[in-house]
Every structure is written in structure tokens, then in C-alpha cells.
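Researcher: I'm preparing a figure for a lab meeting and need a structural model of a single chain. I don't have an experimental structure, so a prediction will have to do for now. The sequence is pasted below. Please return the structure as C-alpha cells so I can convert it later.
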Amino acid sequence: MTRFFHRTTLLLVTLMLAGSLSAAAAESDLARIRDSFDEKLEGVLKERDAKIEKLREGYRGALEQLKKSLGKAGDLDGAAQVLGELEAIQDGSDLPELPDDAGRKLSDLREKWDSSLEEIRNDSHEGVSKLHETYSKALTKTRERLTREGRIKEALAYQEELDRAAELPIVQAALKPAAGGSGLGGSVDLKEYLPGKLFSYDRQEAPPRQIQFEERGKAYFLDDEKVKVRWRVKPDERTVLITHRSWPDDVEVVFKADGNSFDGTTVKSERWRRGKLVSEP
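Model: Understood. Here is the structure written out cell by cell.
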């Protein structure tokens, strides 16, 4: 009886240890493939950033040449516009819209910049999308196997990783449609979505207003349509910068994935701004 008890105890301990080792192995495998995915994702982003920087250097050189040419021709206004573009490209951010009276040569250069930049980003999105698709298939296959084997806790860990990967901003940006429709989690392309839409615009230190977004990065407030403000979507594709040359402080607001509400602050003084969709065309 004692020998049977010891054998039974040994068997139970062995089974428990095997289960523990199996769980540890599954956790180790998940950590390994997660690290591999993150590393490959970082590689795609580094390649994109390197291409953008090369494009930026070429654009900067072309602008310098144009500025010298306009200066020699005595075109002060044109040269000043090019100087403004050089200053904008220097900080490494997305460029604001050119003024309506921008010179033809500057407009042509900007058009080439915009199209080349879009091509680089589309290539990057395609790389991220394919990488995420492969990763999701591998995770899903393992999750389903673990579920069938009754290893629910381990299966849930794989599901959590599926959710984490899907919620990464760069993945959401890559999976959303190119022209304003809903993407993963209802994500929208703000550049396509905002024009024509009216939002409430609540302010911490002043009465509420309403802001009307228009094409080509233009917008205005309904209580003062003469004051034209500018807006542009930042590289994270959820943050919108709103500016006006007379404002002492720019405004940054972050839109929800569906594009129908935002929260943000003034950049320097950090006074809050909030808004919701009021109407659309």
C-alpha cells in the first residue's frame, strides 16, 4: 500500500512537472516569436525612415538651388516662400500646405516630394501588413491547438498577443483602406475623412466654438469665418496640428479611431481642447 502510494505520488508529481514545463515552453515560444516580430517590424520602420531621410536630403538640395535661382532673378517673394519651405523641412515633420500663391516651380517640387513620400509610406504599409498577416496566422494556429489541448491559460496568452499586435498604431495604419473608409477597429484616414465635416471645439479658457474642416488643410471657426486656420495630420496618423500665424500657441488634438471625436491641448500652455462631430456633408 505504501509502495503504491509513493508510486502514485511520484506519477502525480511527474505529470504536474510535465505540465509546468509544457506551460513554460509555450511561454518561452511566445516570447521568442514576439521578439522576432517586433524586431522585424522595427526593421521595416528603419528602412522606411532611411528612405524618407534620403528623400528629404534631395528635396532640401533642390530647394536650395531654387532659392538661389529666384534670388538671382530678383524674385524676393518667391525666394522667401522657398526659404519657408526649407525651414519647414528642417524640423523633420510633415510639411504644412503651401500658400495659395506659391510659385509654380516650388509647387512642382512639393508635388514630387508628396508623391515620393506617399510611395515610400505605401511600401512600408505593405511590408507591415504582410508581416502582421504572417504573424497573426502563426499565433492563431498555436492558440487553436492549445485550446483543443485544454491549455486555456496558454491559449489566452496567445490571444492577448494577437490583440497587442493588432492594436499597434503602425499596424492599424497599414491595415486601414487608403481612401477614408473604416480599417481595423474602425480606423479612418483623417486626411480624407475630415474635409467637409463640422466639429464642436470646446476650450479650457474660453467659450466653445465650432470648427469646419475643409480641403487642402484649411479650416475656419463658424463664429469668425474670416480667420482661416491650417490643419495637418502628423505621422502617427491620429494627431492633427491646428495652427494660425497670429496664435501664440499651436493646438494638437488626437482623434479617436472612427474620427468622430478628439481630445488635445495647446502645445505650450497645455490647455485642453475637445470636440465631437456635429455634421457632415
